[in-house]
Specification:
Elements lengths: L4 H11 L12 H13 L2 H4 L5 H13 L3 E3 L1 H6 L10 E4 L5 H16 L3 E5 L9 E2 L4 E2 L3 H15 L9 E6 L5 H5 L11 E7 L1 H9 L2 E5 L6 E6 H15 L3 E4 H6 L11 E2 L6 E2 L4 E8 L4 E4 L2 E4 L1 H21 L5 H10 L2 E6 L1 H8 L6 H29 L30 H5 L12 E5 L5 E5 L1 H9 L5 H10 L10 H6 L8 H12 L10 E3 L5 H13 L4 E2 L1 E3 L15
Parallel strand pairs: 2-3, 3-6, 6-7, 7-10, 13-16, 19-21
Antiparallel strand pairs: 1-13, 2-13, 4-5, 8-9, 10-20, 11-12, 14-15, 17-18
This protein binds guanosine-5'-diphosphate (GDP) and 5'-deoxyadenosine.
Length: 570
């Protein structure tokens, strides 16, 4: 099989079944057989005579050839008693004690099963308002976020993986300035990513430099006004400070709400790529773009016929997941099965550009992104319409925005996930992100240092005759090829990494993928440490103009605990 040593390590540590003493009781092949067999079973629901053996083989091949990988919960739980297969959930948080603590409990159940949860806290009455039943004073949304955070912390130990949350507050909530600053101290609310829910009205008020209304969610009354620009500058300042909060354009999420009759979309999952209705869940899967490149006389070309075949099979797979999933709550099962959203995306985009010889920060790369994603989106929808012919459209199709079109099986088809772990399993670069480093030094046990070099870069360096461990160490130290002597100029131009790419190109790439993605795109815009608040503000404005659904930025060195470091030995 094609799995790298690293991939096998990750699979053994976190994915393969173990007995009570922690001994492995499953092989890597066994895992993918288990997943493939289980997911293929769903075809029996539609045709009791269907050949699920052949289908299971197709799914098995697709995964073990590293062409497609479903999200982690599917790999971990398919065909096992827990059986929870989705990565993404959104839960409502109503303005009542009962409702809030139901949500805490439900989130704990989801975390235990490996899913991530998103919440809007916008319905919670502001701090200081009265509580009729007790005559007391409400403590406000941020105090409750801390409860969710503590609950997540406690479940960490027992579950398959640690909990992860998204917390959103509308910009017109009276407690918005407290929310914007609630993670100013990086040690606070650590189990949440937070985003400000921005409205078009607010953006217009920023542009015109006017005041906008703050609305009490309980009474719906205007309880104050704020100068939009001041609030906007505070968001920019905090994001510049340590990357939090992000922003999310709520009106845009709702413009793409396929079934507005079911209410408003208030939140996304933890990494922002999946907007969902309250109680809705979604399962994701990603195509490894390395797998769709053919090498012809030393040149790489995209094999679109192969891509089409993978898309068809992946859509079939993801639709089956909805049927085989064991949902943590009845309400979630009902909502999820009424829209049947799936999220097919890509990983290995940066690798693909390296192999095509196209710099990430170029017009050509933007064009390639659009072309690939348009192809996946179009083909994915065709595959979903094909499924609808035998399985019927999603149950709420008749009241969806598609109702006058050809029936389709899934309310959404495409999502660009970060592919944090599954990209390691596939040996691919994550999602649509550029590579963070071409080479880096990994500290392993006993203070040993392991030099890791991007596979394809190593190959090119060897072929072109400039490979040496010493040079790779220098590249690891500097974090970029830009100022390394001994690397040919044309190689430097192609093998760009996150910090060689201007924030504008990061956003333009996000927008290029967003244009052909039903849901949203997980992307971090990297800034150098020297970036100014104005630079951050410019990127927000550009993202807004280019139709992105949200923005997350990160300024190098702005957090004490940074996962990835340029030029630092890890
Ligand atoms: P992968 O399938 O593990 O590679 O997951 P991704 O990195 O693509 O993340 C996709 C989604 O899975 C995220 O947006 C979250 O909803 C969820 N997720 C990712 N990592 C975690 C985690 O560590 N814990 C939990 N509870 N959810 C996660
Ligand atoms: N909104 C959206 N996405 C976020 N991430 C972190 N915080 C937020 C946020 N507030 C995403 C990053 C990265 C992924 C791992 O998590 O953008 O892509």
């Amino acid at each position: 099989m094609k799995f790298s040593e690293n991939a096998i390590k990750v699979l053994e540590r976190r994915y393969l079944s173990k007995d009570e003493e922690g001994n492995l009781i499953e092989t890597v092949e066994g895992l993918f057989r288990r997943v493939a067999n289980h997911i293929a079973e769903a075809d029996k629901h539609y045709d009791s005579n269907s050949d699920t053996k052949a289908l299971a083989e197709e799914f098995f091949e697709m995964m073990t050839n590293l062409e497609f990988m479903p999200n982690s919960p599917t790999l971990m739980n398919a065909g096992k008693p827990l059986g929870q297969l989705s990565a993404c959930f959104v839960l409502p948080v109503p303005d009542s004690m009962d409702g809030i603590f139901d949500a805490v409990k439900n989130a704990a159940l989801i975390h235990k099963s490996g899913g991530g949860t998103g919440f809007s806290f916008s319905r919670i009455r502001p701090a200081g308002s009265s509580v009729r039943s007790t005559g007391g004073v409400a403590s406000g949304p941020i105090s409750f976020m801390k409860v969710f955070n503590a609950a997540t912390e406690a479940v960490k130990q027992g579950g398959t993986r640690r909990g992860a949350n998204m917390g959103i507050l509308r910009v017109d909530h009276p407690n918005i300035t407290e929310f914007i600053q609630c993670k100013k101290d990086s040690a606070e609310i650590t189990n949440f990513n937070i985003s400000v829910g921005i409205t078009e009205k607010f953006m217009e008020a920023v542009k015109a430099d006017t005041y906008y209304d703050l609305i009490d969610p309980k009474t719906k009354e205007v309880v104050g006004q704020k100068r939009a620009k001041e609030v906007y500058d505070l968001i920019v300042d905090m994001a510049w400070n340590n990357g939090e909060p992000g922003i999310v354009f709520l009106d845009r999420l709702n413009r793409d709400n396929v079934v507005p009759s079911q209410g408003e979309i208030e939140s996304t999952n933890p990494c922002g790529e999946q907007p969902l209705l309250p109680y809705e869940s979604c399962n994701l899967g990603s195509i490894n773009l390395n797998a769709v490149l053919d090498e012809e006389e030393g040149k790489f070309v995209i094999n679109y016929a192969k891509l089409a075949r993978i898309v068809d099979s992946a859509v079939h797979f993801l639709d089956n997941v909805i049927d085989m999933n064991k949902y943590p709550l009845e309400e979630i099962e009902k909502t999820t099965k009424s829209t049947r959203k799936i999220g097919l995306g890509v990983m290995g985009f940066a690798d693909l550009l390296f192999k095509l010889g196209i710099p990430y920060n170029s017009e050509e790369a933007i064009a390639v992104a659009g072309k690939i994603m348009e192809f996946i989106e179009t083909r994915g929808r065709e595959a979903s319409r094909e499924l609808a012919k035998t399985r019927g459209p999603f149950p709420l199709f008749g009241e969806s925005i598609f109702k006058d079109e050809e029936p389709i099986r899934n309310a959404t088809v495409t999502t660009i996930a970060p592919t944090g772990t599954i990209s390691i399993i596939c040996g691919a670069s994550g999602g649509v992100e550029p590579l963070f480093a071409i080479s880096f030094i990994r500290n392993v046990m006993d203070n040993d240092e392991l030099l890791e070099v991007h596979d394809y870069f190593r190959k090119v360096a060897e072929e072109r005759g400039f490979y040496s461990d010493e040079l790779m160490r220098e590249i690891a130290q500097k974090g970029s090829l830009a100022h390394v002597e001994g690397v040919p100029e044309d190689v430097k131009r192609v093998f760009v990494t996150a910090h060689d790419i201007s924030p504008e190109y990061h956003i333009r790439m996000q927008a290029a993928f967003q244009e052909f993605t039903d849901n949203a795109v997980s992307k971090t815009v990297n800034f150098p440490n020297s970036a100014t608040r104005e630079d951050v503000s410019d990127v927000y404005r550009l993202a807004y103009e280019l139709g992105c659904k949200g923005v997350t930025i990160y300024r190098d060195g702005s957090r004490d605990l940074q996962v990835l470091n340029v030029g630092k030995v890890k």
